[in-house]
Design goal:
The chain has 160 residues and is of the alpha+beta class. The chain is built from four helices and five strands, in the order H-H-E-E-E-E-E-H-H. GO terms for molecular function: structural constituent of ribosome.
Length: 160
């Protein structure tokens, strides 16, 4: 029985149930770290918007298209850049995309188990390259060598 009796000078909050440190069990402890975290949560979070570009490979399902995205990646052993393909299921609410269309995928909330992207028409590549040019036809305005020779011959004929 003497083993079950504890000395009277030994008192811990675990044995007596009293909180010696003065903190209530039901309140959250406050510290400078938790205050800094609460201030950080009040600020808006910045999320990177993930967009991919690929070609529609299957458009038979209702409101869903299968898009194949191709990227270049180095081979793990030989370090040569190889094409790697991956298929994504994308949401197409109006069923506007057909097989072979180029689409841009935007990350959205999950719609189903496999659909987390929205298919958007990709901007045409000719408009991307003509941002600085005044020509809308895609030409840079430098004539070919054969065209330059024709201009010189016409000018020589006009001077006699």
């Amino acid at each position: 029985m003497w083993l079950l009796q504890l000395p009277s000078n030994l008192s811990t909050p675990f044995l007596t149930g009293n909180n010696v440190s003065g903190l209530n069990r039901l309140t959250k402890p406050t510290s400078t770290l938790s205050q800094a975290q609460s201030q950080a949560h009040s600020l808006p979070s910045i999320k990177a918007m993930k967009t991919l570009e690929g070609r529609v490979t299957c458009a038979t399902n209702d409101k869903t298209v299968a898009v194949e995205v191709t990227r270049l990646a180095p081979h793990p052993k030989y370090k040569k850049r190889i094409r790697m393909k991956k298929k994504y299921q994308a949401h197409d609410p109006e069923n506007v995309f057909k097989k072979g269309d180029i689409v841009q995928l935007q990350k959205i909330r999950p719609i189903s188990k496999t659909k987390t992207f929205l298919a958007v028409p990709a901007p045409s590549r000719s408009t991307k390259s003509n941002n600085g040019n005044g020509n809308s036809s895609g030409e840079i305005g430098i004539p070919f060598q054969s065209q330059q020779e024709e201009v010189v011959m016409v000018e020589e004929e006009a001077q006699p």
